[in-house]
C-alpha cells in the first residue's frame, strides 16, 4: 500500500485501485508482450501528471521487461527487432525534446484514435492475415519511439507492425517484448539523466508495485498458453480499442488535470 500522506489530494479509493490496475496491466503484458502502460497510464493520468506517471511506470517496466526478455528471448524474431530499433531510437530522441514542449492533449488524441482504429480493424476485419512490407518498420518504429517517450505507450504502435509481420503468437510476444525492452531501457537512461526518475516517491512507489507486476505477469503468462493464436490477437485488439477510447476521452475532457 502506498503512503496516503504522499498524495493528499488523491481520493483513497483511487489509491486502493492503483494496485489492481497495475496487476491487470502486467497480466496483459504477460499474455501479449506489451500493453501494461496502456492499462495503467490512462487511469493514473486522471490523478497524477504525466511527468510523474511515466517515470514511475518505467521503473516497474524496467524490472518487467528484463524478466520477460530473460524468459522469452530465444523465441524472438531478431530480424524484425533490428528493423524497428533504428527508427525507434530516432523517435525517442524526438520524443525527449517534445516531452517538455508539446501540448499533451493533441498527442493523446492522435494516439487514441490510431490504436482504437487498429483495434477495430483487427476485431471486425474479415481479411486473412498477410505480412506487410518491412519498410513499414521505419514510420511505425519512429512513431512508437515518440509516443513511448511521451506517454510510455509505444507498445501498441510497435504491435501494429509486428502483428502484421509475425504470425506465431509465441514468437510475436517474444519479439514485442524485446522491442519494448530496448525502448524501456532507453527511457530509463533518459529519465535518469533528466532527473525525472530521481524522486524518492517514484523509486519507492515503483518498488512497492514490483511484486504486483510479477503476480500479474504470472497470470498473463498462463493466459497466453491457454488462449489460441486467434484468442491472443482478439485480446490485443480489444485492449487497443478500449485504451484508445480512454486516451481520446482523456484528451477531450476539460475536467481532467
Features:
mainly alpha, globular, single chain, 257 residues
Structure explained in plain terms:
Helix 1 packs antiparallel against helix 2, helix 1 crosses helix 9 and helix 5 runs antiparallel to helix 10. 45% of the residues are buried. The chain is globular. It is an all-alpha fold and 257 residues long. Helix content is 76%, strand content 0%.
Give start-end ranges of low-pLDDT stretches. Answer: none
How many domains make up the coordinates? 1
Number of strands: 0
Give a quick account of the main beta sheet: strands, pairing sense, barrel closure: none
Please report the distance between the alpha carbons of the first and last residues. 24 Å
Structural class by secondary-structure content = mainly alpha
Give the percentage of residues in beta strands.
Answer: under 5%
Helical content stands at: over 70%
Which of globular, elongated, flat, extended, rod-shaped describes the shape? globular
> Mean pLDDT, rounded to whole units?
82
Which H/E pattern describes the elements?
HHHHHHHHHH
Number of helices: 10
Please state the CA-atom Rg, rounded to the nearest Å: 17 Å
Question: In terms of topology, how is this protein built?
Answer:
Blueprint (H helix, E strand, L loop, with lengths): L11 H21 L3 H9 L5 H23 L5 H22 L4 H21 L12 H15 L3 H8 L6 H26 L5 H27 L2 H24 L5
Compact description:
The chain has about 260 residues and is an all-alpha fold. The protein is about 75% helix and about 0% strand. It contains 10 helices and no strands.
